[in-house]
Predict the 3D structure of the following.
Amino acid sequence: MENLHLYFKFVIKWKAKERFYTFLGEESAEQVKLRADRLNIINDDILFLGETDIDIISDAIEKENPKLVIIDSIQTMYSDEITSAAGTVSQVREITARIMKICKMQNITTIIIGHVTKDGNIAGPRVLEHMVDTVLYLEGERYFSYRILRSVKNRFGSTNEVGMFEMQESRYGGNY
């Protein structure tokens, strides 16, 4: 649910009248709808789909042609063409490659969210890090108010900068 808080903070700041699509592998459509209603978010350009099947996701991206696609999280997505479980090297590689191909062909900005382990490493295979342009970590202790955003890979710039954020009680409920 913390991901939804951060996501809706982003949505609230979204000013463009361009469509964007979020595919959620861990939250149901009902959870997202309840949170959006509670925050009074009404925007026909913001689309959600609680789906993990890459074929359905691919079709939705091609049909809607959004300006931004967010995948949360890559470890929950799967393809029926691959016999291994979601989150394995084969699945993560295939899903990421398909998303990148579709989005690059249609010039769609893409954010792929991956889980991290308690040790702070990307959960599952590290193949994801090698396929994307930028890897950002949002770090911090659950019961402390500060979070650090740091880049561990950036094909377009420096990885020597960090952002520090204080999570404060919000008028929208929860901490941001």
Summary: The beta strands are 20-24, 46-49, 68-72, 109-113, 134-139, 146-154, 162-166.
